[in-house]
Amino acid sequence: MAAAGDSxxxxxxxxxxxxxxxxxxxxxxxxxxxxxxDDAAGRRVVGCVERVFTAEIDLAVLTRVRxxxxxxxxxxxxxxxxxxxxxxxxxxxxxxxxxxxxxxxxEFAEPTEGEPFRVTAVPRNV
Length: 126
Ligand code: SF4
Prior knowledge:
Elements: E1 9-10, E2 16-21, H1 23-28, E3 34-38, E4 44-48, E5 57-58, H2 59-68, E6 76-77, E7 88-93
Antiparallel strand pairs: 1-2, 2-6, 2-7, 3-4, 4-5
Bound molecules: iron/sulfur cluster.
């Protein structure tokens, strides 16, 4: 078994793979890692203590956007590998650039919950 690493992005080939998170999931799940404070302008701002995403978001804007989009805010690129509690997914850009042999780093997209696993190729005896 091998750890998949803590990076939110993989650039080991010409496909760009990034973990993304939906900050609406942080609110819906009442994640204990979601912090909030009121700034000088009176806005309630939220962010992630674990720095899964590094932006701070105006909660009123987050709520308005979700109301206008059927509950979705839209994905944010994760700064690190998401935690099991996060509503997350891997987004791929330039998929047509995938090497003929396939993904060179399949551990990157391992599910965030559960044990890690390693993909190996075993030569057959001919
Ligand atoms: S740990 Fe995940 S679910 Fe919790 S606040 Fe951070 S990004 Fe959101």
